[in-house]
Amino acid sequence: MEVTIKHLVKKMGLWFGPLRDSTNLFAKICIICFFITNVAQFVSLIRSRNDPEHLFACFSVLSFCGMGFIKLTSLQLRRKSWRFLYKNTYNIENEQLNNDDKTVNYESEDEENRTFSPHILLYTKQFATTSSWLTKMYSFTAVVYILSPFIGYAMYNANGNVDDFRVHILPIWSPLDKLSIIGYVFTLIVELIASIYCVAIHITFDTIATGTMIIICGQFSSLHEYSQQICGSGKRSDLNVKRDARAHYRIKKCNFIHVTLLSMVNKLNELIRNIIGIYFFLATLTLCSVAVQLQSTKLSATQLISLLQYMCATLIQLLLYCHYGHAVQTKSAVFIGDGPFTSSWWSVSGKVRREIAILCTGMSHSCRLFAGPFNVLNLHSFIQIIKTAYSYYTVLRRTSELEK
Question: How far apart are CA 255 and CA 251, in angstroms?
Answer without folding.
Answer: 6
